[in-house]
Amino acid sequence: MTLQQWCFSFRGRLGRRDFWIWQAAWLLMLVLLFTLAGNNLLDTQTAAFCVVALMWPSSAVLVKRLHDRNKGGQWALLFILAWMLMAGHWSMLPGDAQWVVGRFIPTLIMVCMLVELGGFAGTPGDNRFGKATQAVIFLRRRTPDYQ
């Protein structure tokens, strides 16, 4: 799999190693963006634009990893649900319900999804989403042309 397929295509399957590589790269990019924006070295709107631009490759990696687990891409909507619950204003709920709906449930969803996608092996061999996983080729070795 090429870097372009890894980051931009929703087709195919992706193994755990490449999923975790993306998660680490994504986390580093976010830390860098927020550090630069927090120190006024980068405009906040530019940082927000970069975060939005990272949503497509994040979604592509997530969906391909779900495909490797033989699950459809619609399962990725659980992350959106978790984000919406976490971003909601739940003061209208009584007592501990605010914490349960606004913090506990979203955290539970995210942890379960990360364990599912990052901890469990994909289906062996071919499945309904394609052939067995192929590692991402990060650096292409050039072979000399002998003519």
TrEMBL record:
Keywords tagged on the record: Membrane, Transmembrane, Transmembrane helix
Species the sequence originates in: Erwinia sorbitola
Positions of transmembrane segments: 20-38, 44-63, 75-92, 104-122
Name of the molecule in the record: DUF805 domain-containing protein
